[in-house]
Amino acid sequence: GYAAFQLYGLVPHAAAFAFMVSVTSLALFLSVYQDGAALALIGTAGGLGTPFILYVGAGSVGGLVLYTSLVLAGACAIYARKGWASLLLTAFLGTWTVFLIGYSELLYWNDAASSQDRLAMQIGIAFAWVALWICASGREVLKARQPRRWPRPEPGTLTRTVFSEDVLRRNSPAHLVSAATPLVALWFTELVWNLDGFALGGISLGAAALYGGVALLVRSVENGGRVHRAQALTALLLATVSLVLLLDGSPLLVALALEAAVLHHLSRRVGERALSTGAHALSLWVLGWVFLRILDGALAVGLGSSEPSSARGVPFVGGGSLAELAAISLVLAASVAIEHPKAALAYRAAVHAALLAWLWQGLSPLPNGAAYTTVAWGLYAAGLLVAGLRVDAPSLIRAGMATLFLVVGKLFLVDLVGVEAVWRILLFLGFGGLFLVLSYYLQHLWRPKAGAAGGASSVTAGYLQDEELRKP
Hints:
Layout: H1 2-7, H2 13-33, H3 37-53, H4 61-82, H5 85-102, H6 104-107, H7 115-145, H8 157-162, H9 165-169, H10 172-193, H11 197-221, H12 227-246, H13 249-270, H14 273-303, H15 321-336, H16 341-363, H17 369-391, H18 394-418, H19 421-445, H20 458-470
Helix pairs in contact: 2-3, 3-4, 3-5, 4-5, 4-7, 5-7, 5-10, 7-10, 10-11, 10-12, 11-12, 12-13, 13-14, 13-15, 14-15, 14-16, 15-16, 16-17, 17-18, 17-19
């Protein structure tokens, strides 16, 4: 058909197009009749490529939308009947590729494109979103309710090559298509209408509410399936996108930190690995952003701050210091929900480092800010040490001791050179007295748990036992 039209001109465009459509329809029919996934892949890919194979330099956007939607509807119907994951992925990738190629002039905001063409494109985007969503999730709901009637076929060689056995067992390809479809549709919508962040954020927030409602509905009808979790995760993903689009700066930082903390607690409650992975990724993003903001604030102080003169010399003013402290506190709250001890310890170590950096950045603008930073670090370290002794927490004791050693190093390496003489005297006298008080009351502060002297609190217990042996 291609050669008869494009190479030799033996038939008109209408006849060649009808012939190609017949070949596509026959391939899809035979795939169902002979139970052959390869025929379905060939028919879907060839059908989606037909408008470009027979391209004559002009075409109707509405016609392309209608044709592509019909091919997609046929592929989705076959997937609902057979459950071939490779067909679903082919339909997903092929449909959006056709839209991207066919509407390239519209996507880059061609002024010659009419509003009818953009509306036709938007209708095609909406149909593809709904069709792929219902196709991917609906069959999983039916399979959960009637597994014998809607069985999951054995994956083919191509599917096994792309996905692992664990992913295929959970039928993650269908959930992946269900989650990725609204994001792609949102991106296409922004390109078609050239929307600003506020409008796009509102659409994303509405889609998040829709997916959340569907998750609640599906949970009540499916029989022990995982579709409602996939819909809930998609709702959270869309909600995160809406936050990024609607908010900026400090409000966005606090909102993302709050969302990460909520996700950590939800993942512990429901035991969902994907939820936990998203919570970790969001927490790392928040921590990285906090450190970047602190570094940016420190560089601004060193190069000359742009803050008004009334704000200079005032601690923790400007740069969103309260927002950074709130984000750090929320990450600390999230660490409580982490069951893995090493991961929880890593979170708290990052929070500890962020607090030290936050104190340094907030107190540096003050006259003799280095001295104030040393005092703040020392009091914070003493608080950690005392709290660790009172609750018998070795991690807090080690953090307090390590911070005290850091303070001593700062005293000798930084403050001894860069701080005024009066402050140097006061700092050395003050910390000398603090160390004497801590050493004198160490045994009285320690509250060991039952049977802890030989186990969890061995570091403190060993030190105190040596002190008892030295007594006359």
